[in-house]
Amino acid sequence: MADDRQKTPWRTLTASTLLLVVLAVIFNIAQSSTLIASIVPRDRLWAEWAFALFWLVVGFWLVHHTTHLFSQFTSRQKTADARAWTTLRRALAGVGYLFVAVVTLHLLHVQISSILVGGALTGVILGIAAQSTLSNLFAGLILLTVRPFSLGQTISIRSSYFSSVDYTGQVIDVNWYYTTIEDGERRRIVPNSAIITAVITVHTAKETQVWNVSLPYHIAADDVRQTVSDQYSSAVSVSITDFGVDAYTFTLEAPASLDPDIIRRAIASQLSGPS
């Protein structure tokens, strides 16, 4: 039975939520019952405090028990991001504890509406002040949950934040606020809010790039291909696409990791050689 609960945490969460709501209704009905009203005013305050304290203990235990079962489930998910599961667990626990606290205040006849109005005003002010921080935090949560790319992959980012300029590099870190990509010795730390709205290209090891090259007729395209292959230590391919009056055009296809300067040096060496 315990294994079934660990395999289906959402069923446990639903059952615990319904139980928490039902208990809250029962406590509110019991608090306004004739039994409480029949207590003398001198002792009624103590009875209401004891009643609210009992609800607080029961409610907090139920929320803690539910989040504990959820933690056991997430610890078995080897392929999931631990930070995303931890954030989700804390959010569920926060909502549960807040619900228990609100019901406790209601049982103590505290005017919750005035607290909510003051809290809403404070929340608006803090929200405006922390808009950039919150947008990056929520974007980080989405990246850690959806995982459009992973550590070690090479990506290209194009966003309006960067005037639609492409930034390419290897992902070396993704945290709650920034994503860090590395291009050689250059390291870029990009806000998550910019990444979440960007067009992201995830490069693969088998990806290729193509260059169109024009050469005079006395230089063979195969000689350029051979020079590039020797310097890069990897196979590249060429194919002639067009013929002009004084030159012809061919395409050179090579792995994406090839430094274009190798092609430039190969062409320069052929141009400076004997005709």
Word description of this protein:
With 275 residues, the chain is of the alpha+beta class. It folds into 3 domains: 2-129, no CATH class; 148-203, SH3 type barrels, CATH 2.30.30.600; 208-272, Alpha-Beta Plaits (2-Layer Sandwich). 57% of the residues lie in helices and 20% in strands. The protein is built from 10 helices and 8 strands. Strands 4-3-2-1-5 form a 5-stranded antiparallel β-sheet. A 3-stranded antiparallel β-sheet has the order 6-8-7, with helices on one face. β3 and β4 (186-191) form a beta hairpin. α2 runs antiparallel to α4, α4 runs antiparallel to α5 and α9 packs across α10. It is rod-shaped, with a radius of gyration of 32 Å. The chain starts with a helix and ends with a helix. Residues 1-7 have low confidence and may be disordered.
| Secondary structural class | alpha+beta
Secondary structure tally: strands: 8
Overall, the morphology is rod-shaped
Beta-strand content bin: 15-25%
The radius of gyration over CA amounts to 32 Å
Spatial sequence of strands, sheet with the most strands? 4-3-2-1-5
Q: What percentage of residues falls in helices of 4 or more residues?
A: 55-70%
Spans with pLDDT under 50 lasting ≥5 residues?
A: 1-7
Main sheet: strands, sense, barrel? 5 strands, antiparallel
**Which whole number gives the mean pLDDT?**
75
What string, H for helix and E for strand, traces the elements in order? HHHHHHHEEEEHEEHEEH
Tally of helical segments: 10
* Head-to-tail CA distance between termini: 83 Å
Oligomer: single chain
Count the domains.
3
